[in-house]
Amino acid sequence: MSLDEKLRKVLEKARDSSGLIVFLTGAGVSAESGIPTFRGEEGYWTQGSQVYRPEELARWSTLASDPELVWPWYLYRRSICRGADPNPAHKALACIEDALEDRFALITQNVDGLHLRAGNTLQRTWQIHGNIDYMRCSRACNPQLFAMPDIRGVGPGSSFDHAWKAQLSCPMCGSWARPHVLWFDESYDEENYRYHSSRQAAFDACLLIVAGTSGATNLPNMVAEICLSRGTPIIDINPQDNPFTSMARRSEGGWLQAPATEGLKWIEDALSG
Ligand code: OAD
Ligand code: ZN
Fold this sequence. Notes:
Layout: H1 5-16, E1 20-25, H2 28-31, H3 44-47, H4 54-57, H5 60-65, H6 67-83, H7 88-100, E2 104-108, H8 114-118, E3 125-127, E4 130-137, E5 146-147, E6 177-181, H9 190-193, H10 195-204, E7 205-211, H11 218-229, E8 234-237, H12 243-250, E9 254-256, H13 260-272
Parallel strand pairs: 1-2, 1-7, 2-3, 7-8, 8-9
Antiparallel strand pairs: 4-5, 4-6
């Protein structure tokens, strides 16, 4: 299988214009690196019903009341991310940024940092749900991000080890640190999650390419809706039908039914051809 003629023309038109090409990625892009998605069969949110209750753990209010419950789950998830490597989908996106430079923007919901490790730049990669490699003060006494300590051997269901406490505290005020991720009881902002930049990119885009996301969160949907309302073509790369598929079909673009590793490689070839 490969790109059909219609999608190839859409890509070539965008390539030959001077417009911004915006990519929007989700957990499906890292699935082939071995990181579980959220809502798939092995997903964090699906399995959560047996092992965890992620919708309760991933909350500021839970950290405030029971940090020793929240932290082991994040240390476990981070160890999975650190053990994974960028896959060909991440690498294709890094090559596309190299080629497009300021005509490239990447909005990612992934907190695993794999886009950056593959070579995408922080300047053009907006981690709208944060990055699990970092933490910050839970009381926001300062805006700085601190590297997450390298605590190993934390598995699903591990309990809190008091020896970790000092490493998981804000170095400025001594309060608990928190993972640098967006939680269910929080809202997007510009400072931490690039809310305005992402919306602006949607207004500026001449093409939106969505890959590996199920469309369950607010800002990604808004980005696609803005593009759709402005007549911007949308291409959705996903093996499964999802809400972005129908938006892509309603636009001048369409559905590229493929895993991200294949689909993004074809996109890279078409944009550099
Ligand atoms: P989901 O788990 O909801 O969706 C993953 C998507 O990836 C599905 O549509 C799958 O069909 C697709 N997929 C699976 N394997 C793929 C592959 N190899 N190539 C391409 N696509 C593949 O994950 P997200 O949409 O990323 O937010 O979830 C969005 C947000 O919901 C997460 O960032 C998280 C969660 O609540 C926060 O934690 C704030
Ligand atoms: Zn502090």
